[in-house]
Amino acid sequence: MDIYTVLFIYLEAVNLLTLAAFGLDKHRARVHRERFPEAALMALVAVGGGIGALAGMILFHHKTRKKLFAVGVPVILVCQIGFFLCLFWAVSR
After folding, report:
1. What is the number of alpha carbons within 13 Å of residue 47 lying toward its C-beta?
2. How far apart are CA 28 and CA 12, in angstroms?
3. DSSP string spanning 27-47?
4. Alpha-carbon distance 51 to 63, whole Å?
5. Structural domain spans, the chain
6. Which sign, positive or negative, has the C-alpha torsion 32, 34, 53, 7?
7. Which of 80, 81, 63 has its CA nearest to residue 19?
């Protein structure tokens, strides 16, 4: 496997996990159960789960009023996209 395949599989897995975590946290909020700490959700975003987090915020209407998420998730996602574009550009040279 080349590095692109490994990176794609990693990003796919972390984004699916992040999406599932946002959905489960929303469900737990509705049924008044123990929730995931916000730091854990943001950690998933930070390690590459920005797309999954943004999708979870939109699909589940979750954490959209929290400034940390409403601003933080898009900012982290844009930074990650920029990083990966630079990485791909550097590797392809």
Report:
1. 13
2. 24
3. HHHHTT-----HHHHHHHIII
4. 14
5. 3-92
6. negative
7. 63
Which pLDDT does position 84 carry in this prediction?
A: 87
The tokens for 27 are 């469900």
* Number of helices and strands in the chain (H, E): 4, 0
CA distance 33 to 51: 26
Whether residue 4 has pLDDT greater than 90: no
How far apart are the C-alpha atoms of 81 and 52, rounded to whole Å? 13
Work out the average pLDDT over 15-34: 98
Altogether, the residues listed in the chain come to a count of 93
Instruction: List, for residues 51-76, the tens digit of each pLDDT value.
Output: 999 999 999 999 999 999 999 999 99
- Residue 27 near residue 59, CB atoms below 8 Å: no
**What whole-number distance in Å separates Cα of residue 84 and Cα of residue 92?**
12
